Amino acid sequence: MNILNLDKFSVQEINEILDLAEEFKNGKEVDYKGKKVISNLFFEPSTRTHYSFDMAALRLGCRTQNFDAGNSSLKKGESLYDTVKTFESFGTDAIVIRHVDNEYYKQLEGIKTPILNAGDGTGNHPSQSLLDLLTIRGEFGKFEGLKVVIVGDIKHSRVAHTNFKVMKKLGMEVYTSGPLEYKEEGYNYIELEEILDKVDVVMLLRVQHERHQTQMQETKEEYHKMYGLNKERVARMKQNAIIMHPAPFNRGVEIADDVVECEKSRIFKQVQNGVYVRMAMIYMALEK
Ligand code: CP
After folding, report:
1. Distance from residue 32's CA to the centre of ligand 1 (Å)
2. Is 188 helix (H, G, I), strand (E, B) or coil?
3. Of 102, 115, 3, which Cα lies nearest the Cα of 44?
4. Integer Cα distance of 45 and 154 in angstroms
5. 102 lines ligand 1 (CB under 6 A)
6. Index of the ligand 1 atom closest to the CA of residue 98
7. Whether 145 contacts 168, CB under 8 Å
8. Which residue's CA is the closest to the ligand 1 atom numbered 4?
9. pLDDT tens digit at each of 288 positions of the chain
10. If phi over 0 gives left and psi between -120 and 50 gives alpha, with beta otherwise, what is residue 69?
11. Pocket test for ligand 1, best of 47, 52, 66, 117 (most atoms within 8 A of CB)
12. Does the C-beta of 248 come closer than 6 Å to ligand 1?
């Protein structure tokens, strides 16, 4: 099966994927004994998603191919479709793709090999969202009724777009905040100061300069002062509230250096959970 976005998954199905990820976390063993190959095709830079899918595949006993976009025939004008069709023709068993185009997978409708979306433009980031959900469920044991504020560059964030939809579907109360220039209409905008002490999860986002046509209005220092999570703001959060960030993060901009690994931060827990979620996704791609 493909996993391209989370729109088609019901609440029960999302929980079932998380259950499977949790089984892997608790030691479930699957060993394809090198007989399955997973091809990682990253047309955009990535550290976490790329190497976490790679680690997940290795943990399942798969072998992996890691496409080097910069030294590929993309440079000779080869299209996305022809590149993916080439890997399918090699006989790979599943293809993990990150690409700058929103819903790039619509260009791949003739491909029969399972595709796992590792992020499309500003659209979807299903594996990130699932690892975020695994982290939240692990922390609170539920979704229904939890309050979350996603803070930052909402407009350019596939994490915000994916999480806003799926978290609402799961019964969470979802707010967004940050600079007005990055506000997304219909995304329940609120001033950070108004909501900070009421939420269970503060999810920070990086300002995604690579997607901007114009320069950010604020300096990094101004951004940090207005929206950055510093020790003083952390002290105003609810006692059991947690801090999340998909990373990469910019220390001293959206998050203070001394908050990155503070007691409320689950940022590296998210990275750990990413491997289990991606093991579940690869297993589903190969078995369903
Ligand atoms: N969170 C995330 O998608 O990080 P990378 O861009 O490093 O994969």
Report:
1. 26
2. coil
3. 102
4. 20
5. no
6. 8
7. no
8. 48
9. 999 999 999 999 999 999 999 999 999 999 999 999 999 999 999 999 999 999 999 999 999 999 999 999 999 999 999 999 999 999 999 999 999 999 999 999 999 999 999 999 999 999 999 999 999 999 999 999 999 999 999 999 999 999 999 999 999 999 999 999 999 999 999 999 999 999 999 999 998 677 766 777 888 899 999 999 999 999 999 999 999 999 999 999 999 999 999 999 999 999 999 999 999 999 999 998
10. alpha
11. 47
12. yes
Q: Which amino acid is at 33?
A: K
Which residue's CA is the nearest one to ligand 1's atom 5? 46
Amino acid at 194: E
Provide the whole-model pTM: 0.95
Signed CA dihedral, 161, 204, 150, 276: sign only: positive
Determine if ligand 1 sits within 6 Å of the CB of residue 128. Answer: yes
| Secondary element (H or E) of residue 42 | strand 37-42
Element containing residue 56 per DSSP (H, E): helix 48-59
d(CA 73, CA 7): 33
